[in-house]
Amino acid sequence: MRKSLFLFIMFFCVQIVYSQQLAVVMDKDGRVNVRNKDKQVVDTLPSGEVVCCFEEKDSWVSLYYTTKEGENQWKYYIHKSRLMSLSCLEKIPLTFNSEDKAILQKDSIVITLVQKDFIPQQNKISKENGFVYKINDRKFWGTDGDIPRTEYKSIKISLEKQNVEIPEAAFDDLYEPTLGYTRANYDRVNDILYLHSMNSDGAGGYIVVWVIKKGEYKKRYVYYDF
Where is the signal peptide (predicted)? Predict the structure, then answer.
């Protein structure tokens, strides 16, 4: 996916879910059925899970979601009434953006992301048929078999009187950050911050979402191959 495609990604606070929109699963019973194209139940998701949505037809939304085993599943469906777009939540705007640093800020919430050059000599690069398939013995995101040029250095969040630092393990396999495309939405009622970005070097595009609940880092989602 080329970087220019990112310019066309927009989020709308409406019931209809548009292409590649992030949404939170919400249901009063605590779980939502996931169905196949024949509307048969194939899985369930707990309320609070973040999914990546695509087309909506006849009130059913096709989506990517993450299984209990951490794998991505796609081309499954959830009824749109069980999804809430992240764009419906309070936006924390991008207030500063440079080549290696971005800041999102609103009132007492300050999010600072810093990137650095990727140095191949300081990392274990595994190749197969001339393509990189692992870095430091881990699957990675951000390039389509090439050596990355940049990586995250740190992600720090100031939430009123709480300071939160996203652990390195939550971003050290994510490469080619596009800091200017970082977005954040805050659920003040439940005290949940969703920090998300679309990253790529022009290929190997992916979406990452970090979830911070009540001042603690909770979970990460990575969606790719869309």
Answer: 1-19
Nearest CA-CA partner of 192 in 116, 103, 122, 88: 88
Longest dimension (CA), the chain: 52
| CB neighbour class for 40 (10 Å; exposed up to 12, middle 13-18, buried from 19) | exposed
Q: How confident is the model at residue 75 (pLDDT cuts 50, 70, 90)?
A: confident
Q: Is 64 exposed, middle or buried (0-12, 13-18, 19+ CB in 10 A)?
A: buried
Contacts of 108 (CB under 8 A, 6+ apart): 158, 159, 160, 161
Beta bridge partners of 96: 103
Tell me the per-residue pLDDT of 100-154, one tens digit each, with 9 for 90 and over. Answer: 999 999 999 999 999 999 999 999 999 999 999 999 999 999 999 999 999 999 9
Element (H, E) at 26: none
Q: How far is CA 175 from the centre of its chain?
A: 13
pLDDT in tens, 144-190: 999 999 999 999 999 988 899 999 999 999 999 999 999 999 999 99
Compute the half-sphere exposure of residue 18: CA atoms within 13 Å on the CB side of its CA: 9
The answer to whether 137 and 126 are in contact (CB under 8 A) is: yes
Neighbours of 122 (CB within 10 A): 7
- At 54 the three-state DSSP class reads strand
